[in-house]
Amino acid sequence: MTIDRLIAGFKSFRKTYYEEQPDFFRSLVEKGQRPDVMVIACSDSRVDPSVVAKAEPGELFIVRNVANLVPPYEPDGRHHGTSAAIEFAVRELKVGHIIVMGHSHCGGIRCLCEGREDTENREFVDDWMRIVEQARDDCSEGEAHLRHVEREAVKLSMANLLGFPWVKRRVENGRLELHGWWFDLEAGELLAHEAGDNWKTLTG
Ligand SMILES: [Zn+2]
Question: pTM of this prediction?
Answer without folding.
Answer: 0.95
